[in-house]
Amino acid sequence: MRSAFGVAEVRAAERAAMARGPEGALMRRAAAALAAECARLLGRVYGSRVTLLVGSGDNGGDALYAGARLARRGAGVTAVLLAPDRAHPGGLAALRAAGGRVVDGVDERDGRAEDAVAGARLVVDGIVGIGGRGGLRERAAHLVAAARTATVVAVDLPSGVDADTGEVRGEAVRADVTVTFGAYKPGLLVDPGRAYAGAVRLVDIGLDLPPERRALEALQYADVARLLPVPAGESDKYRRGVVGVVAGSARYPGAAVLCVAGALHGGAGAVRYAGPAADAVIARFPEALVSAGPPSKAGRVQAWAVGPGLGDDEDRLLDVLDADVPVLIDADGLRLADERRVRARRAPTLLTPHAGEAAALLGVDRARVESARLAAVRELAARYDATVLLKGSTTLVADAEGPVRVNPTGTAWLATAGSGDVLSGLAGSLLAAGLAARDAGSVAAYLHGLAARHAADGAPVAAQDVAEAVPAAWRDVRG
Ligand SMILES: NC(=O)C1=CN([C@@H]2O[C@H](COP(=O)(O)OP(=O)(O)OC[C@H]3O[C@@H](n4cnc5c(N)ncnc54)[C@H](O)[C@@H]3O)[C@@H](O)[C@H]2O)[C@@H](O)CC1
Ligand SMILES: [K+]
């Protein structure tokens, strides 16, 4: 499991570490690792032009000390000070002693700051770190834009990205690599921030962060392998779990077919379909058990997936919500599901909105959800007292309490019609196989992302291709 910690936790761990160790030890470790990463990116340090963008805090201090190390190895290092009176004094002295140059970044008259950025092979963003508030200020944004061809390395996190949420208010640095200290910060793993961070390198600087204080977590291969339902020797199809699918309508029979396609690959022993697209489903999947009547009369299931292409069929939805088994609600089902009704359920509920659906449920516009995904998923989970999977780039899964999960396998290829229907079937199947809602949602998202990569392999994919590639994703994970 990869964990990310909020700023308050990092600061507390920093205080504890500082009380233990000699003064300046943390910054020395941070700067050494930062300089090593810069050297790796440069290949040949001697004679390379490196420009540091330095703000008023310790983030700038890290950049200055790292710059001093590079200067000692023969790099031509220039520090551009964005707050000339408040730059880290120790860092400045170290850079000067190593032969580095310092220019005033606020003074716009002679263009020296612009030249230093434009002529650099490597630009180090030490403008702000976890102490940053809001987006880049105008002068900083202007200088960052001058770095057209340089490799950009962000110190701790790209300046302008909110460390706790990944929100970007205004401009932010677009880094090729982010060297982050002590712990991943949520903003490095959740979009839009994640997209600004480039490749993230975590450096251990000796902070002690208790795992139970994590704000965010991302499943890794080994976690998914552990969670995948594997049939025991004595299992039969009923013990493996039966997933019920309530999806599709006369107008949208395809949603039923795609949802069943996903469900067939999630590990449940059987898929039961109940709805008006029964003929279309059985024609495509003879292994599905189909009926056209109400879900409650369809036979026993261990979990339901309801909603894709459902249209306005509220009766079927209510019938499913009454069941005392886990229920996944997606698409039209989300529009029809009453908040109180969902809260009153005793068995687990998993809601799987995309940003547009989440926005409609929250009564805000879509852009608001896209820009503040963590806040949106947490709020929905609290309102519905349910597990919520917010689809999109960096899919999130939240319970009403506890750390949020972020999916690391997403790919833009998944932005294709019907791919959400496949995800619903897949997650419903994992629920039926006995996974908790949070695990079912996050394992489904993980497999779905891997499947899309398999299916796409550099070319556009259709939702059906994604469903068919799910077994390959299982094999990847199980090694
Ligand atoms: N927390 C830790 O354990 C460690 C932190 N270190 C570094 O220290 C950083 C945190 O240092 P600080 O607390 O000094 O904070 P920062 O250096 O992140 O920035 C705070 C300063 O920036 C100004 N500021 C805030 N928002 C701004 C904006 N949008 N534009 C321009 N200026 C803005 C503030 O007025 C304040 O002076 C970390 O990100 C990391 O780089 C490392 O040295 C090693 C250890
Ligand atoms: K930074």
Automatic annotation (TrEMBL):
Binding site for AMP: 391-395, 420
Domain YjeF N-terminal: 10-213
Limits of the YjeF C-terminal domain: 220-477
InterPro entries membership: Carbohydrate_kinase_pred_CS, CARKD, Nnr, Ribokinase-like, YjeF_N_dom, YjeF_N_dom_sf
Alphabetized Gene3D superfamilies for the sequence: 3.40.1190.20, YjeF N-terminal domain (3.40.50.10260)
Reactions the enzyme catalyzes: (6R)-NADPHX = (6S)-NADPHX; (6R)-NADHX = (6S)-NADHX; (6S)-NADPHX + ADP = AMP + phosphate + NADPH + H(+); (6S)-NADHX + ADP = AMP + phosphate + NADH + H(+)
Positions contributing to K(+) binding: 59, 125, 159
Cofactor(s) demanded: K(+); Mg(2+)
Keyword terms, alphabetized: ATP-binding, Isomerase, Lyase, Metal-binding, Multifunctional enzyme, NAD, NADP, Nucleotide-binding, Potassium
Protein residues bound to (6S)-NADPHX: 58-62, 129-135, 156, 255, 309, 354, 421
Any single Pfam family the record assigns to this protein: YjeF_N
Lyase is among the record's keywords: yes
EC number: 4.2.1.136, 5.1.99.6
Cofactor note: Binds 1 potassium ion per subunit.
Subunit structure: Homotetramer.
Function: Catalyzes the dehydration of the S-form of NAD(P)HX at the expense of ADP, which is converted to AMP. Together with NAD(P)HX epimerase, which catalyzes the epimerization of the S- and R-forms, the enzyme allows the repair of both epimers of NAD(P)HX, a damaged form of NAD(P)H that is a result of enzymatic or heat-dependent hydration. Catalyzes the epimerization of the S- and R-forms of NAD(P)HX, a damaged form of NAD(P)H that is a result of enzymatic or heat-dependent hydration. This is a prerequisite for the S-specific NAD(P)H-hydrate dehydratase to allow the repair of both epimers of NAD(P)HX.
Family to which this protein belongs: In the C-terminal section; belongs to the NnrD/CARKD family. Belongs to the NnrD/CARKD family.
Protein name: Bifunctional NAD(P)H-hydrate repair enzyme
Organism for this UniProt entry: Streptomyces alfalfae
